[in-house]
Amino acid sequence: MPENSHGNRTQIAAAKLRQMIIAGDLPPGQRISEREISTHLDGLSRTPLREALKMLAAEGLVCISPNRGATVAALSISEVEDILELIVGLEGLAAERACQRISDAEISEIEALHRLMHDAFRDGRLMDYFEINQRIHQEIVDGAGNRELSRIYAAACARIQRYRYAGNRRHERWDRAVAEHDQIVTALKDRDGALLRELLRAHHRNGWRVARILVENELNEGKA
Amino acid sequence: MPENSHGNRTQIAAAKLRQMIIAGDLPPGQRISEREISTHLDGLSRTPLREALKMLAAEGLVCISPNRGATVAALSISEVEDILELIVGLEGLAAERACQRISDAEISEIEALHRLMHDAFRDGRLMDYFEINQRIHQEIVDGAGNRELSRIYAAACARIQRYRYAGNRRHERWDRAVAEHDQIVTALKDRDGALLRELLRAHHRNGWRVARILVENELNEGKA
DNA sequence: ACCAACCACATTGCATGCAATGCGTTGACA
DNA sequence: TGTCAACGCATTGCATGCAATGTGGTTGGT
Fold first, then answer.
1. Count of CB atoms situated within 10 Å of the CB of A103
2. Are B149 and A66 an interchain contact pair (Cβ–Cβ within 8 Å)?
3. Which chain B positions have a beta carbon within 8 Å of A158's beta carbon?
4. Domain span including residue B13
5. According to the model, what pLDDT value does residue A168 have?
6. Backbone angles phi and psi of A102, in degrees to 5
């Protein structure tokens, strides 16, 4: 039983499309023609595909215009910044709860991820680094023990992931980000919620300062 | 052009179902049979209805089990509390931003709502009171000027609205809540973000302390 | 030469029909 | 009498066909 047979065709289609959008295979603004996409997804019919699109629209990943079809959600700089502000806020809330409630075992798991991230950094495996980095943040949020918070945080991250990582072929700021993560893990181990909160806020602010320029360039190229 | 022809039948069905769930016309755990519900919704076919259900599932308002159909999402006490904690957190984030960014005109609008709420209180119009109350909170959040925050806040409120207001036939705590709202509006006028945040937190905590008992009774009755 | 109305094509929106899955019931056997 | 298996019904899952809407191109007029 392949892992993908998890659930019905609607769920599979939604998962595949979600992944393609998050990874950037389908760029923002890209039209999603029902018939065209259906041929790329095992030739499944339009009905489950439409259901999947409606779900992704509710998640904010695609935009559906009545009688005009679906497109991959294209966010403006300020919309990305709004979502990023939300993410920082959610992480801040989670950080303080996490420092009170997280177990030593969970902290160990995060430390293990942290070491994996260091390895990926040392070996120059950029995509692995990004993925582990994201997982660390998610696990810190999960540490707050609030499933709804975790869900919303994950959904918000998915919406802007492409904007934060897409153009980052070069590892500008990479060493700096790793150093910040060292501090973050230390603050978590010390269970210093207020400090953790501020470190996370600064970490995201610094990261966006770099990514923003790439996104701006990309948007300008799109116009030109 | 009737106001309901806003959008296509999927959107209309979603809006109606959403309203029915939030208002409690469809109680938590209620099975939503596609064919049965379709007859209650102008006899529209199952296809747009299914699309609407998928959207509501993505919003967390309904729960879909593969091959077993949809039910109105039934939340446990702790799930309601998780969402409430999230709401309090989001309001707190919004409160500090709102105190920096909100315009005097928006404050005036909130004050006007506040007076309407007082009127509803004086005249004993409970449902009007609830609705205006909710709108005040939403407008405070909107005052932060972050659309994504506003959207997520609204969605979270929708998920637990029924649990907070459903059983409140009697107006326990009503006068107390109005007094708290007076303080809240004052803090907003003074643009005291930290105070506003704490007032909102206390307001929700006090409100839930009462509503929780009603929800617990309801859940126990359901078992018995 | 430019603009506007019209027509044909492509795409989405929706209804219906059939296949597949789950559930309740009945009947037989231990 | 209790339990398990097989059958039938009801419901969901999906594909397809038709109607409605939007789009682009062409033609006719000014």
1. 10
2. no
3. none
4. 3-72
5. 64
6. -65, 145
Task: Give yes or no for residue B178 having a pLDDT over 50.
Answer: yes
Residue B6 confidence (pLDDT): 62
Are B64 and B88 within one domain?
A: no
B-contacting residues in A 184-213 (Cβ below 8 Å): none
Whichever domain contains A16, its CATH number is 1.10.10.10
Alpha-carbon distance of B152 to B161, in angstroms, equals: 14
pLDDT of residue A53: 98
Among residues A72, A98, A121, the one where a domain terminates is: A72
Q: Write out chain A residues lying below 8 Å of B66, CB-based.
A: 7-8, 11
Q: Which residues touch strand D (CB under 7 A)?
A: A 8-10, 44-48, 51, 66-68; B 32-36, 46-47, 50, 64, 66-70
Q: What is the predicted pLDDT for the residue at B3?
A: 43
**How high does pLDDT run on average in chain A?**
93
The answer to whether residues B14 and B42 belong to one domain is: yes
Say yes or no: B144 and B115 in one domain.
yes
- Checking if the pLDDT of B1 tops 50, the result is no
- Is the pLDDT at B4 greater than 60? The verdict is no
Q: State the total domains in chain A.
A: 2
Please check the confidence at residue A149 and state whether its pLDDT lies above 60: yes
**Which long-range contacts (C-beta less than 8 Å, at least 24 apart) are formed by A15-19?**
A16/A41, A17/A52, A17/A53, A17/A56, A17/A61, A17/A62, A18/A56, A18/A59, A18/A61, A18/A158
For residue A192, give both structure tokens: 């210093």
Residue ending a domain, choose from A29, A55, A72: A72
Residue A12 CA and nucleotide C26 C1' are separated, in Å, by: 38
Cβ contact, residue pair B82, A156, below 8 Å: no
